[in-house]
Backbone:
């Protein structure tokens, strides 16, 4: 009987030891794959956004207006020269984004009471909110772009999208946009495909996503179309300017107007006009 008990205790200890070895092996494998591309990141890293089934809750009331998070690649490959240009890609991209933002000035001049919020985020191996989403201020945004360091490190697109999404839900507008400019695929952290699907699902389509593939095949980001977003390609600086203008001015800024949204003063005026009965002409 004693020998039988000893045998059972030995079996239990051996089972526990085997389980411990398996757990350590799994941990080492996860660490080894930490810098792997998208497919491996999907299986190795949990979503940073929380429970994927939960709907995003705004931090405060939301109303008319548009909030845009501009997410810029600052990884090592952006130091390379742009096609047909003597300057590195990150300088070309910065100037193209500056030109894009200039169209906001005329929009704000026409509709000063219509909230336009813009933020600038850069990513390499880490994500840095250079100017978190807030009411449009050209000088603040240009200062953020001018402070961009020389590119270095990996490409954490998915993480950057998730950080930008968080700030969009603090901005106080119904309309929310993420605009990504990148010259490479995700190399570190959770994959942009997974984050895009999660944002689309948990925002119930409230966050629109746009990708501009700069000097890289746009079809590598085709998953954006699956979540009702758009992806376009730009081989050089001129094409990048054109694509950014088409998206930002031609779609994001004009979408509110196309949907019949106007700033409060115009809406109040229209309501008064419709409520006032027409004057009867004198006989």
Residues:
């Amino acid at each position: 009987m004693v020998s039988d008990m000893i045998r059972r205790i030995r079996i239990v200890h051996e089972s526990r030891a085997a389980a411990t070895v398996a757990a350590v092996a799994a941990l080492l494998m996860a660490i080894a794959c930490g810098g792997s591309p998208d497919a491996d990141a999907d299986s190795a890293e949990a979503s940073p956004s929380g429970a994927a089934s939960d709907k995003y809750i705004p931090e405060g009331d939301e109303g008319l207006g548009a909030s845009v998070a501009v997410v810029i690649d600052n990884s090592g490959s952006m130091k390379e020269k742009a096609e047909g240009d003597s300057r590195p890609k990150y300088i070309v991209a910065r100037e193209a984004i500056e030109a894009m933002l200039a169209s906001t000035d005329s929009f704000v001049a026409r509709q000063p009471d219509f909230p336009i919020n813009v933020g600038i985020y850069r990513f390499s191996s880490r994500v840095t909110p250079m100017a978190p989403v807030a009411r449009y201020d050209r000088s603040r945004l240009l200062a953020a772009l001018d402070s961009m360091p020389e590119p270095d490190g990996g490409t954490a697109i998915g993480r950057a999208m998730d950080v930008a999404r968080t700030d969009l839900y603090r901005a106080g507008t119904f309309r929310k946009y993420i605009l990504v400019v990148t010259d490479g695929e995700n190399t570190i952290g959770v994959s942009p495909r997974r984050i895009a699907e999660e944002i689309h699902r948990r925002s119930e389509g409230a966050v629109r996503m746009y990708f501009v593939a700069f000097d890289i095949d746009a079809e590598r980001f085709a998953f954006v179309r699956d979540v009702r977003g758009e992806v376009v390609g730009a081989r050089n600086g001129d094409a990048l300017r054109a694509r950014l203008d088409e998206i930002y001015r031609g779609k994001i800024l004009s979408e509110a107007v196309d949907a019949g949204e106007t700033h409060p003063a115009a809406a109040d005026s229209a309501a008064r006009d419709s409520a006032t009965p027409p004057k009867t002409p004198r006989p």
The first strand starts at residue 63 and ends at 73. The radius of gyration is 25 Å. The chain has two domains: 1-30, 63-259. Residues 1-30 form one domain.
